[in-house]
Design a protein that fits this description.
elongated
Length: 272
């Protein structure tokens, strides 16, 4: 009897495993999967197997073709949020036009970036894409991501003097410097975009401090993704969307070509 009971238990395990997997799906998807006839279940299994066996790059290309159009349509339908993002971009003097093509590119970049954040494991493309498809809140995160990325891209293209001016405008300068200015300036150094030389000599220091980094569009995205996690980018965009004064921005002041205010006393002690 004991052996028979053991065999019965083992025989029932696959069903329990299947239920556990299906329970992780949204209820609507679970009901659909359970209602499929045998032939269509074979199709689902075939597609699942091919996806899991494919390289991350192939997964990304497939998902870009297979789901991006639907996601773009959903995001374009959210007119209120889309207009708020556009208004914030205008406030930062950002010229990016959030058309269908740009949003599609950002969707792909979002799930690639999300996948890289997970212990830098590139095999998480599929999971990141599924979150976008199934979760409305996750789609809102794409809007925050777009806004955060665009703002951070501006800072990457600033000189260190312009960083200083931007930081001076913020309510909490120390938090802003630690969260944004220092990581960006570290990336500038590591990638030889700004090369401090003879830092103790005033005029030598002045020369690199006002240097505007020259960064290609592709390199700029790579630097942002390597320097900031998706969550940090999202938090930046969310803060901007939540309140217009979260990040104070005065374009004329920050980008004033006259470097007459270089090295004010409160920034003299800032580590380079």
């Amino acid at each position: 009897m004991a052996n028979l009971k053991d065999k019965s238990t083992k025989f029932s395990q696959p069903k329990n495993t299947a239920n556990n997997i299906l329970d992780k799906l949204p209820l609507e998807v679970k009901k659909w999967a359970e209602s499929l006839p045998w032939n269509q279940r074979r199709y689902v299994l075939s597609l699942s197997y091919i996806l899991c066996a494919s390289s991350p790059q192939m997964q990304a290309e497939f998902l870009d073709d297979y789901i991006a159009d639907g996601l773009v349509s959903k995001m374009l339908e959210d007119v209120d949020t889309l207009n708020r993002v556009k208004q914030n971009l205008i406030g930062f003097h950002i010229q990016t036009d959030l058309n269908e093509s740009v949003i599609r590119d950002y969707i792909r970049q979002f799930y690639i970036h999300s996948a890289q954040d997970t212990q830098r494991q590139p095999d998480m493309y599929l999971e990141s894409a599924l979150h976008l498809v199934l979760n409305t809140e996750e789609r809102n995160n794409v809007f925050y991501y777009i806004l955060g990325i665009e703002f951070i891209k501006i800072m990457f293209k600033m000189s260190w003097l312009q960083h200083e001016r931007l930081a001076r405008l913020q309510k909490n300068q120390e938090i802003f410097i630690n969260n944004y200015v220092k990581p960006i300036q570290t990336a500038h150094r590591l990638n030889s975009l700004v090369v401090p030389k003879d830092e103790k000599i005033f005029f030598a220091r002045r020369a690199y401090y006002i240097k505007v980094p020259e960064i290609s569009a592709r390199k700029l995205i790579e630097l942002v993704m390597a320097t900031f996690t998706t969550d940090k980018v999202n938090n930046c965009g969310f803060a901007i969307m939540r309140h217009v004064e979260s990040f104070r921005f005065d374009y004329e002041y920050i980008f004033n070509p006259a470097p007459d205010d270089i090295f004010p006393p409160e920034f003299q002690s800032m580590p380079n």
